[in-house]
Every structure is written in structure tokens, then in C-alpha cells.
Amino acid sequence: MKKQTSQITLPTLLLIVILSAGICFAMVALLTNIFERKQEGRSTIMRVVEIDDDTSDPAVWGKNFPLQYDDYLKTADMIQTTYGGSEAIPHVPTDEDPRDIVSRSKLELIPQLKRMWAGYAFSKDYREKRGHAYMLTDQLYTERQKVGQPGTCIHCHGSTYVAMKELGNGDILAGFEKLNAMPYSEAKEHIKHPVACIDCHDPDTMALRITRPAFMEGIAAYKATQGIKDYDVNRDATRQEMRSFVCGQCHVEYYFKGDQKRLTYPWSEGLTVDAAYEHFEKEEFKDWVHAETGAPMLKAQHPEFELWSQGIHARAGVSCADCHMAYKRVGAMKISDHHIRSPLLNVNASCGTCHKTSDQELIARTENIQTRHRKLVEVALDALMDLIDDINKAKKNGVSEEKIKKAQQWQRKATFYVDYVEAENSSGFHAGQEAARILAESIDFSRKGQNVLRESTP
Amino acid sequence: MNQITRLKLKTVLYLVIAVLIGGVIGIGTFTFGYANGASYLKADSKSCANCHVMQGHFDAWVKSSHGKFASCNDCHAPHDNVVSAYYCKARNGFFHSLAFTTGDFEENLRITDYNRGVTEQACRKCHADLVHQIDILAVGELNKDSSERLESNSCIRCHLTVGHDT
């Protein structure tokens, strides 16, 4: 016994000490972790600063809502999906354009676009879309700016709520009118941030709210077509509707109406592409005149909200935020992910909530739709190019003015339809069959335009 | 003199070891108690929601069609013998704790193949009368190896939401 104990050497004992110290260390670490997890279970919101209806700086809101703010800042990430997102291209900063990174030019990726928009600013510069963080700078330094854009553009390229309030002495509608009428360079002086917390949230309750007058008017006009009179979106919309409406404030088809360049959403006949076209026909509106054919043209913008509203997800009551701001758990809190991006980059949380299958399968299903869509867009653009060729030829060959006019009208319509889904930011996913229908019609309109020119003179 | 110092040194070292071992046991016992460790050895469904990640599943289960009749263990632990039942509990317990401690897990949670197999078998335990005929029609004579049945005739492929529709 005595001999045995005396055999325990100093190194052995040291080893035991280190070992049991290590075990104690790990155990306390685990204990602390369990304690933290239990604390997380009692979720709390800490109001550390006062925010009110004039707090436009998202960093101030971020002090009260650090989780949401951290995610919001991530919209600066540039990530590519198969058919969307953006790739970072190095850019040598110049005095005119101080950006050191830009996104790829879509005019080079899809060469037909340049000709489709001939004579319009979009044929000069059209790039992959980047995250919300870039909305101010990308709008400021696009080549399109050289044409001299109106202040109306800032409506969606910056956080305008507080600016509109200040300009209108508390009346956002009055401020809106003033901002529209300014040149862009002047309007941007009133704007400090890209889209911020205050553009979607009520500072007192954090409830969603609509801050853009153009959406309030547009959605009221649309609801009127449904027989709903005197629709006030901030009073009458449901919470789930709001989770799409706040995005629909900007992700829509729009135009600048009249000499005041008043921002207007063409929803007086409905939310479909046909309804928008009908609206423009009634207004006799044109964005520009085609440089090759002389047709009075329409530029479709980015009708994400409208196309989504025609799709199966809208039908099932799934909102924009359900997929693009999927709920996530931080500790015990369930929050909307404010890192707004393609659901393809967050498939489990976005799609997996309803579609219980693997990420790979969900991406494959989505890309199936998008691959077919891209093929159809190609066909529609080629058909349009053929129509432009034919009109040019007919003009040279002295075909009657009346026929040329008719063909130009088809060019206007075919362009608007193909542009409507090309400029839309989901590569057809928001409503696959509707997008295919629109492209089929566009192809048909191009063909009809060609036929007009071929008819023998009556 | 030499012997006395050695004796003193020995006493000190034994004391240190005793304190450390006692410390480990003490802290360990406290941690086990604080984390409601004993609750995992029983079959109360509430203990599955000890970590709040499962709170939603628990809430949904209470209201589900199975909430009154089947516990978590009824569907998520094997029923063939005690060994495999406790193996399952230990395995899931370990991986769940690891995931929750490190925070390295995805939301929505997805069931693993092993656990899907366990659940499939559990459906068949209670609904044997109903399912036996269907299984035979689907795959012919039933082998002990159930993988064929799970592949072709999965209960939870269609009845995904009976337990807890989250």
C-alpha cells in the first residue's frame, strides 16, 4: 500500500490535475451555455434609444433592433444564383463614377435588349440588380443618369418618407409632389439613406405601414376595379397583405405621368400585363420613340408585385416576406430575416417551411421553371428582332404609312410584353405559367406585326 | 527531513485531487439538475421541449390528432426492445445537445434517415391492423428488413402532419 502510493510521480499527478481542470472548465462552459439558452427563452426587446416618425437613420433603429439591423446590413452582399443576383465586377473609380465594384452589364449578356431599347437610356446601361444597400449609388452613377432623370426616381431609390414629410410640412403627399418635380440631382440632396426601417415600419408599434403615396393611389385604383370603394391601404389591409404591399411600394410597373412626371402605377384596369397595357393605351402614353422604326414605345419596369399576384404562391396566401424574409430563430426569438435576397440562397427556411423536401430538390424545381422561362424569353426577343428588321425593310421599300403604323403598334405591344417579364426579377418564377403566357403573346404580337407588312395592298 | 517533506507533498496532492474530483462531481450534479437532466430518462413529452427549439413542435403536438394518445416517444423511439429504445434516446440526446450547444443546426429542422425509419416503424406499431394489408399489397410478402416498405409505402410521406403540423 505504502509502496504503491509512493509510486505516483509528480508528472502523473500534474496530468490528473490538468485533466480534471479541463473537465471542470468544460462543465462550467456547458453550464453557462445552458444558462444563456434559458435566458434566451425569455425573449426581451430592449428600447435603448427613442425613435419617432422623423428618425430616418436605420443605425438608430438598429440600437433597439440589433438583430434585424445586422441582417439589413447584409443586403450589401453580392451573390449570384443561376439566373439572378449579381456578380461583382471591379471598376476603376473615376470622378464621374467613384464605385470600385459594379455588377455585370445585362446588355452584353442579352444583346437583343440593346436593339429593343434603341434610342432610350436603357440601351446605354442596364445591369444586374444588386441588393438594397446599393440602391442609391447604383441609381446615381448609372449611365442613364446622363440623360437627366427626374426627381421621381428617388421615390424608390432612397428612404424618402422623412424627406417627403419635411418638404410637405408634414403632408407626405405634398412632399411627394415637390420631390417628383425636382431634377434628380436636386432631389437626391434631400435623401440620406437607402430604403430604411421607417419606410416600412411604424416607429411606435413596429407594425407594417405604407409610406409611398404612389402605392396608396395605385392600390386604391386596383381595389376599385374589384368593387371596393374608398380603399385606404393603411386602414384596410390585412397583416398578411401588408407583408407583400410594403414590397409592392417599389417592386412594380410604373410610369411618370404628365409634365409633372408624377409617379403612377398603371393599375386602373387591374394588375395583369394586359390591364397595364390597356391603361397605357387609354392614357396614350409613350416612354420614347424607337430609334430604328420610329414606333411609340413603352418601357416595362420591374413588376415583381404584379407577376407574383398572378401566381400560385399568391393564390395560396404566401407573401413576399414569407420567402424573401423567411422567419428565423435567434435564441428563442422568431424574427423576419431582414437580409432580403433570393430564396434560393436560403432554401431551407424559405421554401422548406411548406415544401418538406431537400434543398437540392427545391432548387432543381425552381431552376426547371427558370430555364424554360429563359428559353422562351430568347425566342420572344428573337421574334421581336425579326419584326424590327421587317419594319426597317418595309420603310425602305415604300410600304404604306398605314401598314407601318400598324406594325409599329404591334412592336410597341410585343416589346412591352416581353420586357414585362424580362425586367421582372424572378426569371418567371413568381408566376411561371403567366410568364409563359405573356411571352407566347409577345411572340404572337411580333408575328402579327410581320403579317401586317406582308398583306397585299387592299 | 526528506521523508517529512515527501509526506507533506503527498498529502497536499491528494487533497488537490480530492478537491478537483469533488468539484467535478459537484458542478456536474448541479449542471445535470439545472438542465433537468433526469427528465430525459423518463417518457414525459414535456421534457422534449426543455430546449425551446422544440416548443413549436410541442405546442403543435398538443393540438394534433395524436396529441391525446401518443407521446413523443411513441413515435420517435423504437418499440422492439429496451436496448434499441435507449440507444435511440442516447443518440438523439447527444446530437440534439451538440447541435443546440454549438448553434449549428438548420431551421426548418429536418428528420434524419435513421429517425425517419424509427417513426415509420412506430406508425406501424399502433396501426398494424390497418397497415399490414396495405404493406402486403404494396410489396408482397413482408420481410423482416423493412427498408423496402419504407421506400415504397411510407406512412409519413402523405400523413406528414398528423403528429405536429409545424
UniProtKB/TrEMBL annotation, chain A:
Major localization class: other
Localization: Cell envelope
Transmembrane regions listed in the UniProt entry: 12-35
- Could you tell me the EC number(s) of this protein? 1.7.2.2
**Cellular component terms, GO, for this chain's entry?**
outer membrane-bounded periplasmic space
InterPro entries in the record, alphabetically?
A: Cyt_c552 (IPR003321), Multihaem_cyt_sf (IPR036280)
Q: Does the keyword Transmembrane helix apply?
A: yes
Give the keywords, sorted: Calcium, Heme, Iron, Membrane, Metal-binding, Oxidoreductase, Signal, Transmembrane, Transmembrane helix
Pfam families, per this entry?
Answer: Cytochrom_C552
- GO BP annotations, alphabetical order: anaerobic electron transport chain
Q: Which reaction does it catalyse?
A: 6 Fe(III)-[cytochrome c] + NH4(+) + 2 H2O = 6 Fe(II)-[cytochrome c] + nitrite + 8 H(+)
Q: Name one GO molecular function term.
A: metal ion binding
Q: Which SUPFAM superfamilies match?
A: Multiheme cytochromes
Give the family, as the similarity comment puts it. Answer: Belongs to the cytochrome c-552 family.
The family database entries (PANTHER family) matched by this protein are listed as:
CYTOCHROME C-552, CYTOCHROME C-552 RESPIRATORY NITRITE REDUCTASE
Q: What is the protein's name according to its record?
A: nitrite reductase (cytochrome; ammonia-forming)
From TrEMBL, chain B:
Q: Name the UniProt key words of this record, in alphabetical order.
A: Cell membrane, Electron transport, Heme, Iron, Membrane, Metal-binding, Transmembrane, Transmembrane helix, Transport
Q: Which organism is it from?
A: Gimesia aquarii
Q: Name one GO cellular component term.
A: plasma membrane
Question: Where does this polypeptide localize?
Answer: Cell membrane
* Superkingdom of the organism of origin: Bacteria
Q: Which PANTHER family match?
A: CYTOCHROME C-TYPE PROTEIN (PTHR30333), CYTOCHROME C-TYPE PROTEIN NAPC (PTHR30333:SF1)
Q: Name one Pfam family in it.
A: Cytochrom_NNT
Q: Which Gene3D superfamilies match?
A: Di-heme elbow motif domain
Q: Which terms does the record give in the GO molecular function aspect?
A: electron transfer activity; metal ion binding
Family, according to the entry, reads as follows: Belongs to the NapC/NirT/NrfH family.
Q: What's the protein here called?
A: Cytochrome c-type protein NrfH
